[in-house]
Amino acid sequence: MPILVDIRKLTIIGKLIQHGASNVASSLSTMAGIDADVKIKSLSFVQPGDIATEMGEGEMYHANIRLTEPPYGVFVMTFDDHTAAEIAEHMTGESADDGLDQMHESALQEVCNILTSGFIDGIANTLETTIDMETPHLERADTEQIADRTLSHIHQDSLSIVLDSVVDLADEDTEFQLHIFLIPDPGSFVNVIDKLDVEEIRAKESIGGLHDEDRAF
User: Fold this and answer.
1) Nearest to 180 by CA among 57, 63, 19, 53
2) Which end of the chain has the smaller Cβ count within 10 Å, N or C?
């Protein structure tokens, strides 16, 4: 059975995603001292079976996290070796030209924790709830393997929200390219979305003073 969402509520999905991205930027600043702008370059919807294609070919770093509260499902973040090296070098101040050492790997794990928890917390804050999740664990694997692990807990009638995002470091000529997949449980996701009020969220945005670029969705 396909996932069904009131078309008038589709704008809310974009707002949830943008709030998640905004919270990532705030978390990076407070927890890692990184002043950055998190931009969502594109948002699309694909079937779970197309996840491997969306990830690309070859090996990637990834964090595959199960959500244990509504909307349940799985959150996956992937990035390539180049982005991994950039993040590791920025966090440690040490070159990664000879590969990533233990210090680099620890720095990557720390940033991974901040990115994933920041994104999910941003969505939860908008929903005025909590979304508990497993502890993020960063690994490197082939995209086919990543997709298989992701799909092992997923209904085939689920819908994957795919985000092409960029963490743009302020005052530096550096960007971290990230791919994010949010694959909620169909029934729970529809239930969450149906309970949301677009006008109420807009009113909260006005009070919170979001910038115009944060209203892109």
Assistant:
1) 63
2) N
CA distance 118 to 112: 10
CA-to-CA dists, residue 109 to 84, 114, 125, angstroms: 10, 9, 24
Mapped onto helix, strand or coil, the DSSP state of residue 141 is strand
Contact 67, 133 (CB under 8 A): yes
Residue 129's identity, in one-letter code, is T
Give 6's Cβ-side CA count (13 Å radius).
11
Provide Rg for the chain, Cα atoms.
17
Q: Order across the sheet with 59-66: list the strands.
A: 36-46, 160-169, 175-183, 74-79, 59-66, 138-142
What are the φ/ψ torsions at residue 89 (nearest 5 degrees)? -65, -40
